[in-house]
Amino acid sequence: MSDKIQAVRGMHDILPDQTPLWRKVEAILVDCLENYGYREIRLPIVEKTELFKRSIGEVTDIVEKEMYTFEDRNGESLTLRPEGTAGCVRACLEHGLLHNQVQRLWYQGPMFRHERPQKGRYRQFYQVGVEAYGMPGPDIDAELILLNWRWWKRLGILDKLELQLNSLGTIEERQQYRGELVAYFSTYEEVLDEDSRRRLHTNPLRILDSKNPEMQSLIAGAPSLLDYLGEASRAHFQTLTSFLDDMGIAYTLNSRLVRGLDYYCLTVFEWVTSELGAQGTVCAGGRYDGLVSQLNGKPTPAVGFALGLERLIALLEDSPLATAQIPHCYMIRVGATAERQGLLLAEQLRDELPGLRLTVHCGGGSFKSQFKKADKSGARYALILGEDEAAQKQVGFKPLREEGEQQTVSWEQLVEIIRRQIFH
Ligand code: ATP
Ligand code: MG
User: Fold this and answer.
1) Which of 67, 310, 368, 422 is spaced 20 to 30 A from 247 at the CA atom?
2) 321: closest CA among 176, 191, 189, 151?
3) Which residues does a 6 A CB cutoff place in the pocket of ligand 1?
């Protein structure tokens, strides 16, 4: 038996070889968010359990079986956030951000769900979430989809993603549809799987969302929610699709798209890929006009989505963005004077060449062993300080990846050489 402590199941480390891709992707995402006028909000990872029960819904997968809930030392029930929308609404209400104003907000960070871990499904995973408040029309729904679209274009993965759209109508329309759906599935009750049979009376729309292959043909025959929409809901949806048509954004209507959370109404959408197996939904969201009042705020139109970063990153593994972080230069120092001068020189280089990635060898060793480390680091150039160079305040400059002799130069010359070679 090993007594090494391992990470909690389903909670993964993002290692230094992967973080450069994560950071580049995050920078592009944030860049586009700013292009569209979205502002960042930072929210706690822990909220009162009641917040999620009241917003996400008691009979959803998340609340029924996926939450990390615990009592703190005062006996209060707290939960690691399974998603960001509830906390975002809570914060906006708490700070009066919704009254008579519109908000375009985004956040990012870890979410926690106790699911069965598999590729693309973890117990701690990262989302970028976007929420827009105070705008009731389909134009803001379209804006969110356009923002997604720009993301995929900037990341070079537009051809890997398909947009699926549906409308869930109003609560009343859904209620009526729900009745039809229960009637339909009840006639097949004996062939429903266990989950679906349970949902038949608690949350029948979720049956449509079932991932069980044996349920698919039954689901395909179910009545379609789009047929139960009233005039206003229909108009909202049609205007949205006409905006998308104008912009040349392709979409598929998917009347089975219901989303896992109770608070959605009208527009719902998902960006899905066929490249990630069963975990194909990369980004998903919709309108949730009822949630703010459900949390005791004034009725406020709201629409948002969340992007799953692990799934997005998985799509980008072969992308040119997925390059490791490699130092430009690796400094080798041998001898006490060289070690002291090297630190001075390194700081001077960092002052004069912002953006320079310079690793200074620490821990001593011979020229030979330090050169080996330099080579292993992947650096393009070695900067060499031995006793001779140090005595004359010079430094050796040696290309490690390309042809070229080592040259010995002054510190000033070195700055110019690096500037020319790396930052031309
Ligand atoms: P799924 O149907 O895959 O369970 P969901 O409907 O539960 O997804 P949302 O709550 O809408 O997902 O979350 C938005 C996005 O967050 C998902 O589309 C996905 O990319 C990501 N996501 C959700 N759950 C997980 C998880 N357990 N591990 C990794 N990513 C996740
Ligand atoms: Mg889920």
Assistant:
1) 310
2) 151
3) 83, 113, 115, 120-122, 125, 127, 260, 279, 281-284, 306, 308, 310-311
